[in-house]
Structures are given as C-alpha cells and as structure tokens.
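[Automated response] Your request has been received and processed.

Submitted sequence:
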Amino acid sequence: MRPTKRYTVTLSVLLSFAMLVTACGGSGGEGAADPDKVNERLALMNKEGMPIAKEKINMTTFAGKLYASADWGKLMLWQEYEKMSNIHVEWETVQFDSLKEKRNIKLAGGDYPELFFASALPKTDLIKYGSQGTFLKLNDLIDQYAPNFKQIMEQYPIVKKGMTMPDGSIYGLPTVFDPEFKSLFYGTPWMKQEWLDNLGLKAPTTLEELYTVLKAFKEKDPNKNGKQDEIPWGSEGVWIMMDFLRGAFGLNQNGIANKNVDLEPSTGKLRFVPTTDAYKDMMQYVAKLYKDGLLDKETFTMKDTDITSKASAGLYGFLDGVDPKAIYNQEGYVGMPVLTGPKGDRMLTNMGSPLGNLGMFVLTDKAKHPEAAMRWIDHFYGDEGAKMFFMGFEGITYKVNASGEYEYLDVIQKNPDGLNLDQAVSQYLTWPGGYYPGIVKQKFFKGAEGLPSSMENAEAAEPYAIKMEDVWPSFNFTPEEQEELTTIQTDIQTYIDEMRDKFASGAAGFDKWEAYVKQIDQMNIKRYLELYQAAYDRYKGEK
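Generated structure:
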C-alpha cells in the first residue's frame, strides 16, 4: 500500500483539470464541465493513499457474480475496503448466466448505474456507448488517478494498444494477466501418466504418436479393470482441442485473440484461417480421431455436468483445460508435449494476450465521483490490492508460509463444511468465476493455474511458444467499422462453427470442402478481411 500523504489541490491544478474536462468530456457525471463541480469533487478526495475520500461517498454499481446466494454488501472484501477507502458501494448483482440479458436491459432502458464492475461488457458496447457519451472516456482519469494501471500500460505496451480505440479513447478497464505468470499463457492438455506406464508407452511428440497413444488407450485396457470403458480424449468442444493443434499445422502464429486471421508465412499478408489448406488438414486429422472413437462421442453436445461426471470418475486419458486435480479431484495427470505437425511445425500458438475483457470496469455518465472511482479501482492493479482481492486477509483466509509464499488457510483449502475452493473463497471474496478488473499475479492467484503442476507444464511448453511480443491483442475497430463487421461476421462465424462440427463429426465429408470455401467467399469475406486489415495496420502503426 502506498504511504498516506496529505494532498492539497492548488487553484492552478483545479483550473487546468476543469479545462481538460471541458475539452475532453473526460470526467463525466452531473456537472462534469462545471469547474465548481470539479473543484467540489476534488476537494472531497485525497489524491494519494488511503482513505480515498475525506468524507464517505456512495457509488451505485452493477456487477456479475458466480453464486446467487453471495451478498456482496456483506462480504468481508467490500466491507474492509469500504473502511480503507471511505467509499460505500451499493451493489446490484446478478449471476453470470443472466448477466448479458440484465446488462442489456439496463443500458437500453437508461436505468444503469454509475459504474459497471465485473460485467464483461463486450467491445461492441464499449464502442457504441462510448462514442455516444454514455460511457466515460477514461484516458485522463487513468493518467491522473490510476498510477498502478498507468505503470502496467507503460511496462506492457500491448495493454495500452489493445484497449485504446481507433479515436484514441479508452472506455473500460480490463482483467490484466501478468506476462510473468507463465502458466496463464503456456500450457498443453493433460494426459494420465499411469495409463501410459501401464501400456509401456511414451508421451506423444507428433500427431502420429498421439493417434497411436489414443488408440491404445481405447483398445488395451490401460486402467486394468477388464472393461473397455476408457475414453481416450475428453473435451467440452472440439474447438478446444483444435486450438491446441493449431500450432502443429502452422496456424495462428500471432495467438488466438483474433482467431480467424493470421499472417500468411510466405507473403506476410493477412489471411482467413478457416479456409486455408492447413486448417483443412487439421480438420481432417480431428475427423479421423472422432471417426475412430478416440474422442468422446458426446464431444459436440457436451455439457459441463457431463464432462465433470466422467472426468471425476477417471474415465479420460487426455483432458483439455487446467490440471484435472484442481477441478475433478483426479491425481496423476501431467502436461503432454507440444506436438510436431505434418510439415515439421512444432509451435504453441494457443495463446491469448495479457489483456482480458476490456469491459470489466466502466464508468457511466451518471458517475458522481469519477476521480474517486478511478482511484478505488486502481488499488486492485497494484500488489496490495491484488493480494487483498485474491488472497483476502492474513490470519483469516491466508497465511505466509516459511518460504514466504502466500497460501490459503484450511477454512479455504479444507473447508469444514465441505465447500470446494470456489465456494469457500466466495464466502469472503469475489474472484471465483473469472470476471473481475485487476491484475492476476502468480504470487497471489491460487487457482488451478498457480499449481506446481501447471508451472511445470508451462515451463515444458515455453520453448515452443510464440514470443509474447508477437502475440496480438483483440483488434479494435471504429464505430462504423464495428457496425459493418458485426453484420458480416455474425453469419460467417455461425457458418464456420456449424461446418467445423460437421466436418469433425463426419456429418459433412471433405468432398464438401470446396463448396464450404466458396460459400464463405460469397459471405463478403473480402470486406471482412479489409476491415481486419485496417485494424491491423493501425495496430502496427501505434507506438
């Protein structure tokens, strides 16, 4: 925590800020351009240290949450932060499964709060409502009142470039994934080492070897129970497996934040990935796995409860996602190697950028104290705030062990009421569910990605991973471009997803591939690529 300093606002600073607000509309709220209103707000606030507000102020907030029973107004996190900051938050919360609907109703009807927190506002809404003035432009507020976030932008230029709209505006603060937290970026699917050992098999390093191992898992009783009940590969969707395989086919060498586009290696020009020959080759490989019974037959209809039931029973040889120990209570899985593809490609390209959803913290034009709100959220982009947000409170939810590492107490790790980690954490904190503004750092994040096994997986995969400086964030578009792109890509994406599953499941043979490519050509893919090219050119030109 930064040391508390008494801060006196000089007349020149106030007048300069008032003129800035008038010119940029950057402060928002009632009386935003009125120097007297600005002065009144700043006079109520300490610019540094805690408390943020000299006198208690209130903010109305809409937020998404994981558990319906959680009353955020009574959670220790927010009660303690109110004591520190002198800011009271009136929480209106909704579960994630109805978040989009409730959020859209509020925006459409004008019944929205001062700020949206953990509401996962999509970029299309940021562009739409930001350009209309409903969402505040945050640039100047960040510059003056968010030293932690400002430091992150300076340290990792991809963060600033990825969240800045084409007109230079920033309308929301994101989840930031610390690039030093390697297992958030590098990692492979998990394989059951005991099954490999029982059959005398080595970990696969090529696509051919993977096929051989999966076939042996299906046919040779690796669990030694005398039944053919093993399922070689489990996934909640074939697209998840395909994302891992992309690097073996030379696809997406700038990551998957813009999954449908990458650069053609021979020309350096932007191309549409789902119509390339390499994508077809990948689809044919996956289709062969499914046809030969090496993928779960329910892959294309899998629900979370289905895969949880099977994985918890130890039926899968390979699993996507995080270490099965963390979510299915299954020991003995290790990360599989990065695979070599048919043309010698051995790359891990299934990497997002350090920048998560941009719309995790958004101030609206109803914000009465935008400067204080920015200081309030900035705390969670620094170490002290991140520690409190993810670990809670020393002696209550966590301790510092002899090695100096943070670890949850038994009330979290071995909850006496039988709660799992997410449920136990949610009695005190709000991060379970994955929606939040703030920075995710290894020393404070104790979810599955922070397990030693996850770090070992990451270290093994890292030598084959694309360089972080080559990873693209999700591109940004002008309001006009976004409106046009949305119209085009909705139909294209629906068709791609439909045909992906048909090709992979065998419902469509590859004699239909040329017709598939032709159909996409007729869906205005030329204009789609032009819009992405414009966004890519802007991204390259930004400093």
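Summary generated for your ticket: The chain has 22 helices and 14 strands. Residues 479-505 form the longest helix (27 residues).
If you did not submit this request, please reply to this message.
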